[in-house]
From TrEMBL:
Signal peptide as annotated in the record: 1-21
Keyword rRNA-binding applies: no
PANTHER family cross-referenced by the UniProt entry: D-XYLOSE-BINDING PERIPLASMIC PROTEIN
Protein's name according to its UniProt entry: D-xylose-binding periplasmic protein
Compartments it resides in: Cell envelope
Entry-linked SUPFAM superfamilies: Periplasmic binding protein-like I (SSF53822)
Location of the region described as Disordered in the Swiss-Prot/TrEMBL record: 24-49
GO CC terms: outer membrane-bounded periplasmic space
GO molecular function: carbohydrate binding
Residue ranges constituting the Periplasmic binding protein domain according to the UniProt record: 40-304
Keyword annotations: Signal
Keyword 4Fe-4S: no
Length: 362
């Protein structure tokens, strides 16, 4: 699926200094260099993950302010028609670059194509728009995210001494290309174990819109359908993981059944410290926001940057920046705090203070 070289070794190591700038004489969708740069960003929602409002907005603002460019960051709140309206308003208001986190590839493509036709530069931020026309794609290596989830679940099942465990899947939204990539990643670890009968494949469901309450309903049904015989849960992010944990708690199974996640949300980190969640995947959103902001600013000035890497979308090679994710267990929750992604004050509240002390968070 991916083409090109993955040179980025670790989270936090990518600097956009590695991107080479050159002037764009193609005139193809790039902004007019005489215009004052103004970047529009459309975030998808604020419920599927707290990251969009607490991390992405914060770090994008930080990057735009540092560069001294004008910006407008809005959130479509999971509403596809609002998404299109926001895009139209941003284009009318004269943004020179538009960055989107699509709600699905269809609406994403419509927005990107319209922006392109008006000479507005475009970036797919975090989610690739399939069949789209964005000039760049900035994200993490999402198959590796899934691989870390699969490996994390296997590690925790081994630690629990599980024998032929039944593993249930709570996949991300079927309209999110990332969910497909995450699944390819965890399947690469778990499918061989199902095939060799080391593990047993349990229920496998996608959660529309990455919605937490829907995930809880689905997981409750999975537990009923298997007569309570689920030994591990591959949940694609912390929101879905927390939904599963809430149902496990109701059944006094929390802590016994390892659950995965993603995003290093405060809730996810607390669930890990309490022993209810096995692993989360930390993605240094500050780096992602900075890389995307640098590209958006360059595009807005009519420059082109070479990212040194591309991702295939059908026949199209999309110039991409893909950062490296990191697995987080109880013993390295402190790394997320040291990185400034979450604070000790947020994570170590009330009953969690004791767990923080045990995990060496001082
Ligand atoms: C993002 C995840 C996020 C999920 C739900 C995905 O596209 O990569 O970080 O948890 O969407 O918002």
């Amino acid at each position: 699926m991916r083409k090109g070289i993955l040179t980025i070794a670790a989270v936090g190591l990518l600097t956009t200094g590695g991107l080479t700038a050159c002037s764009d004489d193609s005139g193809n969708g790039s902004a007019d260099s005489k215009k004052t740069p103004k970047i529009g960003v459309i975030l998808p929602d604020s419920k599927s993950s707290p990251r969009w409002e607490t991390a992405d907005r914060r770090f994008l603002e930080e990057a735009f302010k540092a560069a001294g460019v004008q910006y407008d960051i809005q959130n479509a709140q999971n509403d596809k028609s609002a998404f299109q309206t926001i895009a139209d308003q941003m284009i009318t208001s004269g943004v020179t670059a538009l960055m989107i986190v699509n709600l699905d590839s269809g609406t994403g493509k419509a927005v990107l194509d319209k922006a392109k036709s008006q000479g507005v530069a475009t970036i797919d931020y975090d989610r690739l728009t399939l069949g789209g026309s964005a000039q760049y794609y900035v994200s993490f290596d999402n198959e590796t995210v899934g691989k870390l989830q699969g490996e994390g679940l296997a590690k925790c099942l081994t630690e629990k001494g599980a024998k032929n465990p039944v593993v249930a899947y709570l996949n991300g939204s079927p309209t999110d290309n990332n969910a497909t990539l995450f699944k390819a990643g965890y399947d690469s670890v778990l499918k061989p174990k199902f095939d060799s009968k080391e593990y047993t494949k349990g229920p496998d469901d996608a959660v529309p819109g990455w919605d937490g309450p829907t995930a809880a309903t689905i997981f409750e049904q999975q537990l009923t359908a298997t007569k309570g015989k689920i030994d591990g849960v591959l949940a694609a992010n912390d929101t879905l993981g927390n939904a599963a944990i809430s149902i496990l708690k109701k059944n006094k199974l929390n802590g016994k059944v390892p659950v995965t996640g993603q995003d290093a949300s405060v809730e996810g980190l607390q669930n890990i410290l309490a022993g209810d969640q096995c692993v989360t995947v930390y993605k240094a959103v500050r780096e992602e926001a900075k890389a995307a902001a640098d590209l958006a600013i360059a595009l807005a000035k009519g420059e082109k940057k070479d990212t040194g890497q591309t991702v295939k979308d059908g026949d199209r090679d999309v110039p991409s920046v893909l950062l490296t994710p990191k697995a987080i267990y109880k013993d390295n929750v402190k790394d997320v705090i040291a990185d400034g992604y979450a604070t000790k004050e947020q994570v170590c509240t009330g009953a969690y203070a004791k767990f923080c002390a045990e995990a060496g968070i001082s």
